[in-house]
Amino acid sequence: MAYSLPRDVFLLLESAFNQDRDKAEIFAKAIEGSIRAIDEKADEKTAENKQFIKAELYNELRNELANKEFVRAENNELRTEIKQNALLLKVLIGIAIFGLTLFNPAFVRLVELIMK
Asked: Residue 93: which residues within 8 A CB-CB, separation 6 or more?
């Protein structure tokens, strides 16, 4: 990024060097070069930090995604168990109704009346 000192700062430098324009320009270029070097160093540091943060974020997201996959697998397993338990419950209810009906004295009497 190109940077140049503002005109009023240059005029201050010129007056500090007793109106010696050449010395003021040399000093201004040194200041501008320093600012450029600081800018470049900051850009490099920002790029390094960006890569580090990107890698760290990637690892965290990958771990989070693995956790989500684990939870999904557990949910699917639980759903399967619930379906199996629901089927078993229906069978047990059917057997209980059948048993209660078959051994109910009123039902046995009804069957005897029908069979006569």
From this structure: none
- Give the chain's radius of gyration (CA, Å): 43
Angle 107-112-116 (CA atoms, 0-180°, nearest 5)?
A: 150
DSSP state string for 70-105: HHHHHHHHHHHHHHHHHHHHHHHHHHHHHHHHHT-H
Q: Is 27 exposed, middle or buried (0-12, 13-18, 19+ CB in 10 A)?
A: middle
56-95 per-position pLDDT tens digit: 988 888 877 778 888 888 999 999 999 999 999 999 998 8
Q: How far out from the chain centre does Cα 22 lie?
A: 57
